[in-house]
Amino acid sequence: MDKVLIDTDVILDFFLDRSPYADHAAEVLGLSETGKINAYVTPVMISNCYYILRKTAKHDKVVHSLKLLLTIVDVVSMDQKAVLNALNSKFKDLEDALQHFSAKNEKDIKIILTRNVKDYKESTIAVMTPEIYLKTISKN
């Protein structure tokens, strides 16, 4: 069973129903909900999602939505080592570096799902869009 880290943009695609990406995001989250994959997020992703979703809905509704999300995904730890590795890395975006090194803390995460593949050039973990990932697993 694949263990994947789902990046903030994919989670927001789902919550904000951003076309044409929302369907792929929903399908990936559905795989997690049905136990076909183990999906993970980071604490930073939850915070970023809250911040953006709060612009569109009241606090209680956003918190409720994030709690529902956490029933189908797990949260990886983000410790001092991950933060220092991110700060010392060649990643151009600190948030992406934090996601990457937090995913590395969870030994079996082999894939990061994001629409911003180019931002993960320095990743030592496979990076792909949800669309490509879904095509890849449908071949198996």
Sequence-ordered SSE layout with sheet pairings:
Blueprint: E1 2-6, H1 8-15, H2 22-33, E2 37-41, H3 43-53, H4 59-69, E3 74-75, H5 80-87, H6 94-105, E4 111-113, E5 126-128, H7 130-138
Parallel strand pairs: 1-2, 1-4, 2-3, 4-5
Helix pairs in contact: 1-2, 1-3, 3-4, 5-6
Short structural description:
This protein is an alpha/beta fold and 140 residues long. Helices cover 51% and strands 13% of the residues.
CATH architecture descriptor name: 3-Layer(aba) Sandwich
Q: Which sequence of SSEs, written as H and E, runs from N to C? A: EHHEHHEHHEEH
User: Biggest β-sheet: count, sense, barrel?
Assistant: 5 strands, parallel
**Largest sheet, spatial ordering of strands:** 3-2-1-4-5
Number of domains: 1
CATH topology: Rossmann fold
- End-to-end C-alpha gap: 12 Å
Determine the fraction of residues in helical runs and give it as a percent range: 40-55%
**Count of beta strands:** 5
Strand content: 5-15%
What class, by secondary structure content?
Answer: alpha/beta
For the record, the CATH class is Alpha Beta
Indicate the mean pLDDT. Answer: 95
CATH superfamily: 5'-nuclease
Discrete helix count: 7
Provide an overview of this structure.
The protein is α/β, with parallel strands linked by helices. The chain has a single domain, classed as Rossmann fold, CATH 3.40.50.1010. Helix content is 51%, strand content 13%. It is built from 7 helices and 5 strands. It has helices at 8-15, 22-33, 43-53, 59-69, 80-87, 94-105, 130-138; strands at residues 2-6, 37-41, 74-75, 111-113, 126-128. A 5-stranded parallel β-sheet has the order 3-2-1-4-5, with helices on both faces. Helix 1 packs across helix 2. It is globular. The N and C termini lie close together (12 Å). The relative contact order is 0.19.
